[in-house]
């Protein structure tokens, strides 16, 4: 019942329905990493924890980050706990926004590195860029091995030894 306006009475019949808010969690497809739920977009209710698992085809797991900022600058790092199946279990606490996950190497500094990043793990080269670009991979002898068109975000390139 609302009588805030003189001469007008508003009456709501029935129970108030609160909208259910869901947020997306984008899980990237990364070579050597199998996630549950699988790579793609998953949804979770607002203010709930989002849980996922990652199994790595290599010994040392990647560092998993969200795009949420802890202090306005530093990306949140998720701590994985290894279970009996060899999977790492992760929890994103209190989801209050859309989230994008990133799997990658551990930064050596206590600050986020802006711009491009290139690293290798096993026989795969990983490239992260902020915008579309072209990467050229050269051999030690200086010969062009491969040229790749990169889209924004992470790209993995399988390579053979040699």
Written account of the structure:
The chain is mainly beta. It folds into two domains: 18-110, no CATH class; 114-162. Helices cover 0% and strands 48% of the residues. The strands form four sheets. Strands 3-1-9-5-6 form a five-stranded mixed β-sheet, with no helix packed on it. A four-stranded antiparallel β-sheet has the order 2-4-8-7, with no helix packed on it.
How does the helix and strand content classify structurally?
mainly beta
Q: What is the C-alpha radius of gyration, as a whole number of Å?
A: 22 Å
Q: What is the number of E strands?
A: 14
Secondary-structure element order, N to C: EEEEEEEEEEEEEE
Query: Approximately how much helix is present in the residues?
Result: under 10%
The spatial strand order of the largest sheet comes to: 3-1-9-5-6
Largest beta sheet, briefly? 5 strands, mixed
- How many helices? The count is 0
User: What characteristic shape results from the CA principal axes?
Assistant: elongated
Low-confidence stretches: none
In round numbers, the mean pLDDT is 86
Tally of separate domains = 2
**Beta-strand percentage?**
over 45%
Distance between the termini: 77 Å
Q: Which characteristics define this entry?
A:
162 residues, mainly beta, 2 domains, 5-stranded mixed beta sheet, 4-stranded antiparallel beta sheet, 0% helix, 48% strand, elongated
Strand and helix layout:
Blueprint: E1 22-27, E2 33-36, E3 40-45, E4 50-56, E5 63-69, E6 75-78, E7 81-82, E8 88-92, E9 99-104, E10 117-121, E11 124-129, E12 133-138, E13 144-150, E14 153-158
